[in-house]
Amino acid sequence: EPPAATFATTEPKLFRSAIIKFHEVSPWFAFPSALANASILQTLTLDPSRHARSLHVVDIGVSHGVQWPTLLDALARRPGGAPKLVRLAVAGGAAPPGPFSVAPPGYDFQSHLLRYARSIDLNLRIDHTEDLGAGSVALTVGETLVVCVQFRAGHGRADDRTAFLRSIRELEPDLVVLSEIDGGGGGEVGFPAGFARNAELLWTFLDSTSAAFKGRDSGERRVMEGEAARFLETAASEGRDMWRERMATMGFREEAFGEEALDAGKALLRKYDGNWEMKAAPAEAAVGLWWKGHPVSFCSLWKPHRRN
């Protein structure tokens, strides 16, 4: 029996095929990506002075490029015209590694994205950086800066998480999108409770992925499920209340999603299995993704309290 495939051990062509297929059949990552993209567009639309400015997106996520064609397409079609430059800074190394974060050696989404941007007449530049120091993320005066953190902030020790969020705060971004697994619990828990929480998360992933692939086995499905088994090796995910507390301590205030983002989320979920649901309570700014009545993840928007 060969060892279970993980992202790092998969051949790049199958890896790319697996993540694209998974986006098509499951909203696990596609849903928070859609909310993030709609919110980035909204940030540009709400302030007309941003229309012609550069857009700079710092990507600390697990989409390995799959999130961005939809955003690029929407930017190219904007009534006010596309930004004069779209910069994508891929900063995967800025956060501790976790499940779904490590691509196999030889995988390159940059050439695909640049080719796509040229085909829709969009000026795209892609940079890679290993940390978020202001020298590493080359900031330009007047650009709109968005930091998109998808399922990457919750790994490592508590002080790693704090240092990571502080480095984001120091960039003074216009918007931070934070998506995380919703562990439902409070802060850090002991090993037995943490392992049980992770086992439940893995079960949810396997159950929803089996439904997504309609029970059929495939190489793509095996890659996604093999990587998901790494949930059992990580710190138990925390609830959204812990993240709210942590972000507030760092000097961020939470923002509500706009109607267009919520509509985009609802429209996207209709494509998938009926056991998925979106939870957006009036009193809650964050939007939750649930499977069979249990929370899976949440997506939230944050802006820094401006320093005087």
Automatic annotation (TrEMBL):
Q: Where are the transmembrane segments?
A: none
Q: Specify where the region named Leucine repeat II (LRII) lies, as residue ranges.
A: 108-140
Please give the coiled-coil regions recorded for this protein: none
Q: Where along the sequence does the record place the motif called VHIID?
A: 55-59
From which domain of life does this come?
A: Eukaryota
Enumerate the UniProt keywords alphabetically.
Answer: Transcription, Transcription regulation
Q: InterPro entries per the record?
A: TF_GRAS (IPR005202)
Q: Which PROSITE patterns match?
A: GRAS
Cite the residue spans of the region called SAW. Answer: 233-303
For this chain, the family text in UniProt reads: Belongs to the GRAS family.
Q: What is this protein called?
A: Uncharacterized protein
